[in-house]
Structure formats: structure tokens, C-alpha cells
Amino acid sequence: MDSSFSSFSSSSTSVDFSAPASDHLPSFRNCGSSLMDCNGGNGRDALGDSLTGGDYHYVLEDVPHLTDYLPDLPANLNPLQDHPAYSAVKQYFVNVDDAVAQNVVVHNNSPRGTHFRRAGPRQKVFFESDEVHACIVTCGGLCPGLNTVIREIVCGLYHMYGVHKVVGIEGGYRGFYARNTIPLTPKSVNNIHKRGGTILGTSRGGHNTTKIVDSIQHRGINQVYILGGDGTQKGAAAIFEEIRRRGLKVAVAGIPKTIDNDIPVIDKSFGFDTAVEEAQRAISAAHVESESNENGIGLVKLMGRNSGFIAMYATLASRDVDCCLIPESPFYLEGEGGLFEYIEHCIKEHGHMVIVIAEGAGQELMSESIHKLDQQDASGNKLHQDVGLWISQQIKDYFKEKRKMVINLKYIDPTYMIRAVPSIASDNIFCTLLAQSAIHGAMAGYTGFTVGPVNGRHAYIPFHRIIERQNKVVITDRMWARLLSSTNQPSFLHPKHVSDEQNDKNLSVQLVSSFRKENHVEENNVKKLK
Ligand SMILES: Nc1ncnc2c1ncn2[C@@H]1O[C@H](COP(=O)(O)OP(=O)(O)O)[C@@H](O)[C@H]1O
Ligand SMILES: O=P(O)(O)OC[C@H]1O[C@](O)(COP(=O)(O)O)[C@@H](O)[C@@H]1O
Ligand SMILES: [Mg+2]
Fold it and tell me: Is 82 an active-site residue?
């Protein structure tokens, strides 16, 4: 095998079709969490030669199908073929072997690499319309667009597939076993997309796989639509495994929700654009305040627990921001090239400045200067200390005590306002497509998948690819370089400290401490912070 192939096979269960067609087993591919014969006797269309025996280095990271463990499941023709709106569409159904490439930037000798099954309606469905009993649950933090996805799942099931039994699970995962369900109809959800939040309620914690699957089984639910972030998708994967173990005809579909944009593989999560848009209002306010006061500093804290995408994109969009601090890019306060020096430069040069800080930035600095509290939320996510308040105080103290300068710092914390708003128009369309892709996948018998755009095309992605890591800003990528060039802020890093391992979770700390050691910043800095 060509050694270059290894970089394309990020999952340990990936199957390599790189060998010549005659050499490999054409019916094998990666079906979610286990390797299966997905081609024989399972009622599914066989994969065409183009998928399995075509060009070299083609990997399909496929999702499970109900017929993988229920081989005698009968298929029916998709009712959409008689639907007045869709039947006129040329090629409305996706081809059975359509796949979406994970890598679209290639060289003339590149392997074809990893692909995901393309989302969309299939000619064959594995559920009769009147047999479907679907449920929808929303888990984790809020995100603009949740209600739109709920609405579009309900309306899509009703209007595209004639499904009339859809219920909502109240209050996140624990609602499966602790609450009654809410009947959902196109009428009851008609206006919900105009509201922020989730009409179903949400929660952290409370994931009990056995109790949840008992409830699904007991209620006769056979399609489960799960809206949530990385934690939720882990929970969805556990639910799917238990359903498969029990041999139930229940499709489990995940719809990725995260305002932090921390879910990997997909291009972007819904609500993210709304959040960036809403953040502009806070940044503009910070700019106005800072411009109007002598030595004004406007400081805005935005969400981003481990990933700084909202801060980065809001900064790039605004152009009013002079410094953006994110969890992925360590920084330091004092000394040459530090934040304080840069603030002083901006104030002297322009008379004011705007700083955007993501909530997860600078946590390692804070823990050096204040008592560290190792707290978690009910889902096990690390609870951060308020970096906005902390850094405001650090800046004020430094300029008052060390520089004898009067500064006017205005701290704006719009975090919950940003995620509680209704989604903007482009997110509404995105939510609609996600909901419809999820419905088509479940009706076609796929299960154990998350739906999302990969290079602009919706795909079914196995859970393990979604939950194996978090999506982070790569500070050696062009986007971060664009940000640095737009704000003119220091990178806070010596180039030699930036390695390929930069997304290692310990790297922030390593980078900061190695920088300090080499530049003798530690003594001066940490003591002063204390
Ligand atoms: N590893 C896990 N296994 C099973 N369930 C999980 C796991 N991590 C989180 N969950 C559940 O998923 C739900 C949402 O997780 P959380 O991390 O709060 O939000 P998000 O899904 O937005 O990341 C919670 O109900 C939590 O109990
Ligand atoms: O206060 P809450 O509701 O726990 O939410 C805070 C967290 O929720 C988020 O907005 C999103 O997190 P999730 O996507 O994991 O739900 C984070 O940015 C933030 O740290
Ligand atoms: Mg999360």
C-alpha cells in the first residue's frame, strides 16, 4: 500500500480500497462502528463497481443500515415519487453510490481518500408512512435554529412522507424516562422558527442509555431525531448501539447543534452564522464606547468553550477589533510581545481599542493567578472561570499601578444573548436542509448517523467520526493568519513553537511555559499576577 494513504484513513476501522479491484473484497467498507459485509443479503442496493473497484485509494466511511442487523426487512418504493412537488424534479433521488469527498483539494497523484454517503431521498424506503412513530429531542446548550430544525422535521415527515405520528421529548435526554411526550403537528410548530431557544426544552446530564432505550421501546418509537452537540452525539451513539444490540427496528439520526462550531468533519454547524451576526452588535457597542472615551478599551466576551470560531469569525467580520483571544492561541500579559504592551501601543496610536475574548481563552493564565476550581457541568464539561471579568481587572490594575495611565474599560458580556436569538434567514434554510436530509436517511433505513454538510454537500457521517475529536481553530491555517493580519495583534508565539501538534490539548500550556522559560517571562509575570 502506498504510505501516503495512511493520512486519509483517520478511523481505525476504515477500509482501504486502494488495492486494484481484483485484489480487495469489493463488498466491504466501513459501516459506522464495525466492519460489516454491507453488500450481501441485506435488502440494500449493492454498491456499484465505481465505488468499490474504481480508482485507487477510495474509502467510503459508511453509516449503518437497519438491514445490517435485520436482513429480512422489506423495502418499499419512496412515496416521494408520486409527490406533486418532487416528482417533477429531474433526478430527485440520489444515486445509490453517490458519495461526498472529505478532501476536495487534490494533486494530480492524490489518492481519492475518504468519502461519506451522500444524503438525500432514496428510491427505496424501509418504513411505511403509517408505521412511523418519530420523536425529536434537543440536548445541551441552546443554539439559534433549534426550533427551525424541530419544525422542519415535523413538516418534512408530514408533508414529504405522510407521517403523522411525531412527538417531542421534553427537557433533553432525561425527558425520555422522566417526562411525557408532546405531540407535534405542522400546525403546532408552524411559527416556532421565529423564536429562539427550543420549544422542547433542553438539559445537560441525565443520559441513561438503558432507560432511554427502554422508553423508546415501550412507546413504540421507531425514528429518533437527536439534536445536540458533541456530548449529545456521544449519547446518540450509545443509544444506537443499544438499539442495535436489542435488534430493534429503530433509526437513530443525529443533527449536529453547536454554537461553538466544535463538531468535526462538517463544514459548519447551524446557528453559527446567526451567532456571528449577533456578536457584531456587541462588538459595535464596544467600539462606540471605546471611541467615545479617553483611552477607551471595549472588551467583549463571546462563547467558545474549547473552540474560538465565534470570536475569530466575529472579529474578521467586524474589522473594529484590534485583538482577538481564543482558547487555541495561548497568550501572555506582560513583557515584550505581550498583551499589555500591545494594548498600550493601540491606545497611544489610536486612542482606543477593542478586544474580543472567547470564554475558553487564557484559562491556563487564570489558573496561575487565582485559585483553580475544577468544576464540571452536569454533562461532564469543564466549567470555565469568567475570563472576561478576570482580564478586565488585570488590564485595569496593570495600567493604573504599573503605567500610571487612566484607561476607560467597558466590559460587555453578551454570551447568552447571542445564542438565545432566533436564527437568521440563511441558518433557517440550513436547518431545513439538515432536517430533510435526516428524514430521508431515516426513511431509507440508515441509522447511527449524523447529517451535515461536507464541502457543501450533505452527507451521512458515522457517529464515531463526529465524536472522536473536537473541531478547533488551527492557528497555523490561513484563516488565523488573515485574522492576525486584519487586527495587527501579536501572535504571542515564536514561530519555532508552532508545530503540527498544535491542537494537542496540552499545547497551550506547553507553548506558554516554553515561551516563558526561554524569554524569562515567568518570574516577572506570574509573581505580579499573584
Ligand atoms: N460521553 C457521553 N455519553 C453519553 N451521553 C453523553 C456523553 N456526553 C454527554 N452526554 C449527554 O449529552 C447531553 C448533552 O451534552 P452536553 O455536553 O451538555 O452538550 P452538547 O451536546 O451540546 O455538547 C447531556 O444530556 C449529556 O448527559
Ligand atoms: O451555561 P450553559 O448553558 O451550560 O452553557 C455554556 C456553554 O454552552 C455553549 O454555548 C455551547 O456548548 P454546547 O455546544 O456543548 O452545548 C458553550 O460555548 C458554553 O461554554
Ligand atoms: Mg459540547
Answer: no
